[in-house]
Amino acid sequence: MEIEVRSQTDDEMIFVVRDAEVPFVNAIRRCAMVNVPKIAIEDVNIIRNDSAMFNEVLAHRLGLTPLVSDLDAIEGLPLPEDAEWEDFNSGILFSLHEVGPKVVYSKDLISSDSKIKPVYDTIPLVKLKEDEEIIIEASAKVGYGKEHAKWMPTTVCAYKQYPEITFNDEEEVDYDCASACPRGILKSDRRSKKIKINELEDSPLIGVENCTMCRSCVRASANGYINVGHKDNDFIFRIETDGAMPPKEVLLKACDVLGEKAEKFIKFSDEGGSK
To answer: Which of 166, 174, 163 is nearest to 207 (CA)?
Structure first.
């Protein structure tokens, strides 16, 4: 198996996987979404809330506020499978005390750990009118996406099979199929009597990788000059996060989790299964 990274930023990673199978690539996708630990606010004590927002809605907004959850931040914190996880004080404590009139933002949350804080400062939490007061204590804990969306480290985690565009040289060149491409990756070159594949300047993908396999060009071709398919064992994978974790860390942790699951399955089989 080969992996080629096409682009990588703080919250997005695009790479090509070659010589793999669908079940394996899909297993990585699922592990990245639901088995990679992340930090989110779990327990909320609302001591005072004079705002028009219901307590339950406010607690939900706090839970969905992305918190820094890289491997350094998570290290040492109890996991859901640990006995002490249920304790309010076992997590990272946050406090919030504001008086209106003002809009309370995520930056107003005060963390007991300087490393673990909201990823973005400008997420609006609640609007307070004149003399309205809000006092909150909260505990952020490590969890998994399989339990709640707030612990899901990825906002996008998807793959597509590697596109393949072929031309039927036995037929006359059909230039109309190029203009039918909604992404503009096909270009008619009447001088050389060929249809070429363009590079998109605003895309990190290369040539045919930008094809969405919508087959608009195939439908537009009256003589079947062009055909769009895919390579069975090659994939284009995209991971995006909410900024809480770098996408590379999500991918590596997902691979570790998948490896651990495989080892457990092998051990289970070697021991003869359940008894």
So the answer is: 163
CATH number for region 2-34+155-240: 3.30.1360.10
Q: Is 201 helix (H, G, I), strand (E, B) or coil?
A: coil
**Packing angle, helices 22-34 and 247-270, rounded to 10:** 110
pLDDT, tens digit, for every residue of 148-204? 999 999 999 999 999 999 999 888 988 889 989 999 999 988 888 889 998 888 889
Residues 245-269: pLDDT tens digits? 999 999 999 999 999 998 988 888 8
SS3 label, residue 42: strand
> What letter would DSSP give residue 202?
T
Whether the model clears a pTM of 0.70, i.e. scores above it, the answer is yes
The DSSP symbol for 131 reads T
Alpha-carbon span 149 to 137, nearest angstrom: 22
Provide φ and ψ at 22, rounded to 5°. Answer: -55, -45
Strand-by-strand arrangement of the 38-49 sheet: 38-49, 133-143, 92-99, 110-111
State how far the Cα of 118 lies from the Cα of 131, in Å rounded to an integer. Answer: 26
Q: How far apart are CA 53 and CA 32, in angstroms?
A: 34
For the domain 38-150, what is the CATH code?
2.170.120.12
CA atoms within 13 A on the CB side of 13: 22
Closest CA to 219 of 268, 172, 271, 181: 181
Q: Where are the domains of the chain?
A: 2-34+155-240, 38-150
Amino acid identity for residue 241 in this structure: T
Q: Which two tokens stand for residue 92?
A: 């990272």
